[in-house]
Amino acid sequence: MISDEFGNVRILLHPPEIAVLTPDADFLYVVHNNTNQYGIPLQGLKRICFDTSQPRQVQLSPHRERLSHIFSDLGLQKGVFVDIGAYDGVNHSHTRALVEKGWQGLMLEYEPFRFATLAELYRLFPQITLTRCKVTPHNVLALLEAADIPIQFDFLSLDIDSYDYFVLEQILSKHRPTVICTEINEVIPPPIRFAVKYNPHFELDLSQRFYGMSLAAVADLAKRHGYALMHMYYMDLFLIDLNFLEGEEEDLPGFYRQHFLDLPRPSYYHNYPFDTEAVFRAEPDAALALIQAGYAAFEGQFLCSLSPF
Predict the structure, then answer these.
(1) Which residue ranges make up each domain of the chain?
(2) How many helices (H) and strands (E) would you count in the chain?
């Protein structure tokens, strides 16, 4: 939304996005794409323009080149992927480049406006199955089976900002993707194991940064199922089937330092309900106590300990 001093307001829309306008005595409230809400003072307002002429801004995945190298080293020109939390299939997508190379796959997205965009953008890719569904630990295996995803497939992208640990646990109980990219809650350092419990009514609260799972929790799960940590970039963690690992796996503290602690800190780390820098500096017991106290409002909704689950 763009406004000027002359009372003109321009709202940028990219179909199939929508804007809903609700007036009251003093403001005109605009809900854009069912997510962002803005209040426009009615005093001085002269004109509202809905602009669909601007090209859609795209934020590509930062891992396109890395994934290309990984699959090239594996000798894979085309394969099968599963993308859980596919967003609109373009922005931040780890699988879009694979689609363009002719891969087959399943893309799952729950949010209705993102899925509408996904469906529009992927109408020319018949090899891709699109499903609008809230993925849970209870339905994920059935969803993969319904889409004829083989037991062994090539790439899993998982990003649902919630109870990801338990969805991944279920997938690995039956399927064996060669490479996995999963989002974690990266500020929770090893050896702390953290995971949001499954809750069918879970709603993401970014103001508290309450979501996901920690590196140590995923490392335990990976070890149980024969996977190695391969790479990490902030919240994105890559795992690979041990049968395809080249070289030795790094120790967990060294891996965390190299791939996260030594990187610049994003500003949104100030939004956590605990001092992230204090957590990074603290001994494990003290860091655990800081995290548990910070997430006290979510008591009973997460696992958090120094021991494996």
Answers:
(1) 2-51, 64-305
(2) 9, 15
Is the peptide bond prior to 191 cis by the omega test (within 30 degrees of 0)? yes
Superfamily of domain 64-305: Vaccinia Virus protein VP39 (3.40.50.150)
Q: Identify the helix (H) or strand (E) that includes residue 101.
A: none
**What is the distance between the alpha carbons of residues 143 and 122, in angstroms, rounded to a whole number?**
19
- Cα dihedral sign, 17-91-12-160: positive
Q: How far is the CA of 246 from the CAs of 54, 146, 238, 260, 261, in angstroms?
A: 46, 34, 14, 22, 24
Residues 20-64 have pLDDT tens digits of 788 888 888 777 665 566 778 888 888 887 766 655 567 889 999
Question: Which amino acid is it at 309?
Answer: F
Kindly state the DSSP code that residue 151 receives in the 8-state scheme.
S
- The DSSP output letter for 261 is I
Cis omega (within 30 of 0) on the bond before 16? yes
The backbone torsions φ and ψ at residue 35, rounded to the nearest 5 degrees and listed phi first, read -130, -55
